[in-house]
Write a structure and sequence with these properties.
Blueprint: H1 11-16, E1 20-24, H2 34-47, E2 55-60, E3 77-81, H3 93-105, H4 126-129, E4 134-137, E5 149-152, H5 157-160, H6 167-183, E6 186-189, H7 192-202, E7 209-211, H8 226-236, E8 243-246, H9 255-269, E9 275-278, H10 285-294, E10 301-305, H11 309-318, E11 321-324, H12 333-340, E12 345-348, H13 353-357, E13 361-364, H14 369-381, H15 383-397, H16 402-416, H17 423-430
Parallel strand pairs: 1-2, 1-4, 2-3, 4-5, 5-6, 6-7, 8-9, 8-11, 9-10, 11-12, 12-13
Helix pairs in contact: 2-16, 9-14, 12-15, 16-17
């Protein structure tokens, strides 16, 4: 562990010396799903890239950094601790009840003054006094700062699926996203689809938006030991073959349509396909659980809750097929993870997912349970088709690496800070994105 402090740099130093970048990691493990995987990927990727004088600092809190520190594997990648402890992300039952009650009565509150003022946090000064030259915000919960910064937009789901958000949530998202997009030196997205959507929704100029795809994290994880696989089999009573769906239980992740598809296959075609779902069980989970019971799928469906990286790697190794029925995605990390694990994929056609998959997945309409069922039955019953998609997926995954992603971000950091660009930097910044 490295102690942080003032890096001893002045404004004049920054004009000639290499840079110090701060990457936002101010959240606990097991809460933000894909964002957590992204920051781990950046830590692993930048640990592979060493340029004299160029330092990467991950902004975090001491009480919420255990998930990140194992990924910091090089002297130039260090934690930069924020003062105080990170407040709890998980809300108390009383808080959740109050929010539920507020959402129930929301339509009856007069519109005037209902949305209120959006509070946007300001920097506490840690990043500025530490001598950082540039901040890289990895998620929407950013803060105002006088330092130049990159702002990562994961998706604009609230614009496409507004029924999943209250009016207040939509209002707050738009206010924060637009403010930080305006103030940022560059806005980054993961796909060309995301760039087109950002331009259409917020009118941001194309030149301000950089497309930098993510990559699977599984290659950085050790293969599961046989003992772990036996333990997982026993803990969750895993069947010999099963579908795998790793996703937090948000409504747009579309667990309900997937359950309908499994019930339809069982009832109409007498085809019983087991399903294992991992991921944090949030406030929507009780709705999903009730649907499992109503459809009589308790003997076919297993929800593990949040699992460790080792357990995730084990389930990828044990599963037969990854199913990804999401109704909206900014990227779709589990799809690339499955490709890299040699797991055939059955995937939704929502948003950017067809571009991400290419010809390496069997696609379906996420709003049609019978279409989901048909795709599942096809792969479940055709080993040749599974083998074909497995090979295509491995080839597809090989094009996405965290080292390459971090090289691209490094080039963007240098460009924003007006540092000299190498030939590789210029090529990366000018290249057509993979997705």
């Amino acid at each position: 562990m490295h102690n942080n402090g003032n890096l001893g740099l002045t404004y004049m130093d920054t004009q000639q010396s290499p840079f110090h970048i701060g990457i936002d990691a101010r959240f606990p493990g097991g809460v933000l799903g894909g964002v957590e995987q992204t920051v781990k990927g950046l830590a692993h990727g930048f640990s592979c890239l060493a340029t004299p004088g160029e330092q990467i600092h991950f902004l975090c809190h001491r009480n919420a950094s255990d998930w990140l520190t194992p990924a910091l594997q090089a002297p130039h990648c260090t934690p930069l601790y924020m003062p105080g402890d990170l407040p709890a992300y998980r809300k108390s039952s009383a808080t959740r009840w109050c929010q539920w009650a507020l959402h129930r009565i929301w339509p009856w509150i007069p519109t005037w003054g209902r949305l209120g003022r959006v509070r946007i946090a300001s920097s506490d000064g840690t990043a500025e006094t530490a001598g950082l030259h540039l901040l890289h915000f990895t998620h929407s919960d950013s803060f105002l700062t006088r330092l130049p910064f990159l702002y990562q937009i994961h998706d604009l789901q609230h614009r496409h699926l507004p029924a999943f958000f209250s009016k207040r949530e939509q209002y707050v998202r738009d206010a924060r996203y637009q403010r930080f997009c305006t103030d940022a030196r560059q806005v980054t997205v993961m796909t060309r689809w995301g760039r087109r959507d950002l331009i259409a929704q917020y009118g941001i100029t194309e030149a301000k938006i950089a497309v930098i795809p993510w990559a699977p994290l599984l290659p950085f994880l050790p293969p599961p030991a046989p003992g772990l696989l036996r333990e997982l089999d026993q803990r969750w009573n895993l069947p010999e073959r099963f579908l795998f769906y790793p996703a937090q239980t948000w409504p747009h992740k579309n667990h309900l349509a997937l359950l309908e598809a499994l019930a339809w296959l069982r009832d109409v075609h007498r085809l019983r396909i087991p399903l294992v779902c991992s991921g944090l069980q949030n406030r929507h989970y009780p709705v999903i659980r009730r649907r499992v019971e109503a459809l009589g799928l308790g003997d076919l469906v297993c929800f593990t809750g949040f699992i460790s990286d080792a357990e995730l790697r084990g389930l990828y190794a044990r599963a037969d097929i990854l199913v990804f029925p999401s109704q909206f995605e900014g990227f779709g990390m589990p799809v690339l993870e499955a490709f890299s694990a040699g797991l055939p994929v059955v995937c939704s056609t929502a948003a950017c997912l067809p571009d991400l998959c290419g010809d390496a997945a069997r696609l379906f309409d996420p709003d049609a349970p019978e279409a989901i069922a048909a795709a599942l039955a096809e792969l479940w019953n055709q080993p040749e088709r599974r083998c074909e998609l497995r090979e295509r997926g491995l080839r597809r995954a090989a094009a996405f690496t965290w080292e390459q992603t971090c090289r691209h971000f490094r080039a963007l950091y240098r460009q924003v800070l007006n540092r000299p660009l190498t030939d590789e930097d210029q090529h990366l910044l000018a290249a057509t994105p993979l997705v």
